[in-house]
Design a protein that fits this description.
Layout (H helix, E strand, L loop, with lengths): L1 H17 L10 E4 L2 H6 L8 E4 L4 E5 L4 E3 L2 E3 L6 E4 L8 E5 L2 E7 L2 E4 L6 E3 L15 E3 L14 E3 L14 E3 L14 E3 L14 E3 L14 E3 L14 E3 L14 E3 L13 E3 L32 H4 L5 E3 L7 H4 L2 E3 L2 H10 L7 E3 L5 E3 L4 H43 L1
């Protein structure tokens, strides 16, 4: 009975198999040496499988084309994702519009273009051309219309968005170098840094809105938020500190160091260290202090000198603002409160010292150089008068001696 059942089962299976025609086979395996041989086959139904010996891939026939198994593919078959390439090298390959664009390998993402450029972000490097070499654009619309510019780096939303032919620019931050078109070799780090630059070159901006309004200026360097913010066409300016050189737009070759240090207009070749709140400074060499009459008003001769100097009290002391001052030694100078008292005694106020918002005083020691000169001049006048008087007295004494000798001779 068991043998009879087995015979009937085998007969039924063979009968069912024989009813499947070649045109309607569910699965059929082919072993081909290349893809051309696959394409040469015809009258195939969708679903046929073939193994390509050369590239070691399995292909599936969809009724029109042979497609690699293990891939995602779009409707027109020109964009697809392929896992591995048959060599067990742990690869995920991305082909877009029949261009092998990038691949994922262990610990890295490779961009497979021929010009070495990288674009990440919506509409980043949207106008990409073969002329773009070694560009890196990361962020929404970063380098979006760049056409022939090369060796640029833009990181941040709209960084280098308008760049077309500028080269060797570096922009890091939201809208940094956003309007640059042909300017080259600029460096912008910070939101809106070098925002308005169009074709200025070799500018360096570090800080939010640093050099934000420069358009055609070149070789400017701004470090600090809002540093050199108003410069438009000025060149070779250097600002170090928040808001430095804020009044300069077209001035050239100026230097500002310190918070809102400014030269007060569009001048050239000027240096300003610190703002008007600075009350202490030191330098290895002597400074040249402005003394032009155009900087002064209510000019009048100094009426006092020696009479004040002889009453000044000079002290030596240890400064309390630094724990290490004892290591540097004692200082010599005035006590501001006593100096003010001396000035008030002769009817002068607000001279030789500065009082800050905290109520503490600082002495302008340079003011005492002219005072000392005035005192020396007054003293010299006194010396000259004494010399003249001494000569007169010596002449009188000599006359007395001569007369005395004459009287002695007559005896």
């Amino acid at each position: 009975m068991k043998k009879l059942f087995l015979i009937v089962t085998l007969f039924s299976f063979n009968k069912a198999q024989s009813q499947i025609s070649n045109a309607q086979q569910l699965i059929r395996l082919h072993n081909m040496s290349n893809t051309a041989n696959l394409n040469a086959m015809n009258n195939l139904a969708s679903g046929h499988l073939a193994y390509n010996v050369n590239d070691k891939k399995v292909y599936k026939y969809d009724g029109t084309n042979w497609l690699p198994v293990g891939s995602l593919i779009d409707k027109d078959k020109d964009t697809y994702v392929l896992v591995d390439n048959g060599s067990d090298n742990d690869l995920v390959n991305f082909t877009i519009q029949n261009i092998n664009s990038f691949a994922m390998r262990p610990s890295r993402l490779e961009f497979l273009n021929t010009n070495g450029s990288v674009s990440i972000g919506e509409q980043a490097s949207l106008a990409n051309t073969s002329n773009q070499e070694l560009n890196v654009f990361v962020g929404f619309k970063s380098g979006t219309i760049n056409s022939t510019g090369y060796r640029n780096t833009g990181v941040g939303t709209r960084s280098l968005r308008s760049n077309t032919s500028g080269t060797r620019n570096t922009a890091v931050g939201n809208k940094s170098l956003v309007l640059n078109t042909s300017g080259s070799e600029n460096a912008a780090l910070g939101n809106y840094a070098l925002y308005s630059n169009t074709n200025g070159y070799e500018n360096s901006a570090i800080g939010s809105s640093s050099l934000g309004n420069v358009t055609t200026g070149y070789k400017n360097s701004g470090i600090g938020s809002l540093s050199l913010e108003e410069v438009t066409s000025g060149d070779r300016n250097t600002g170090l500190g928040n808001g430095t050189l804020f009044s300069v737009t077209t001035g050239n070759n100026n230097v500002g160091v310190g918070n809102r240090a400014d030269i007060g207009g569009n001048y050239n070749n000027r240096v300003r260290i610190g703002n008007y709140d600075i009350q202490y400074g030191s330098m290895q060499i002597a400074w040249s202090v402005s003394s032009d009459s155009t900087w002064k008003r209510d000019i009048k001769p100094l009426k006092y000198g020696l009479d004040l100097i002889k009453n000044l009290e000079v002290f030596d002391y240890i400064r309390k603002t630094d724990d290490k001052t004892e290591e540097l030694g004692r200082e010599i100078g005035f006590i501001a409160q006593k100096l003010i008292k001396n000035l008030n005694e002769i009817g002068y106020k607000d001279q030789g010292f500065v009082r800050n918002e905290n109520g503490t005083y600082s002495v302008r020691y340079n003011d005492f150089i002219p005072l000392a000169i005035k005192g020396i001049q007054q003293q010299q006048s006194m010396i000259d008068e004494l010399k003249e008087e001494n000569l007169r007295l010596r002449e009188i004494l000599l006359n007395f001696e001569n007369r005395l000798q004459e009287l002695e001779a007559k005896k």
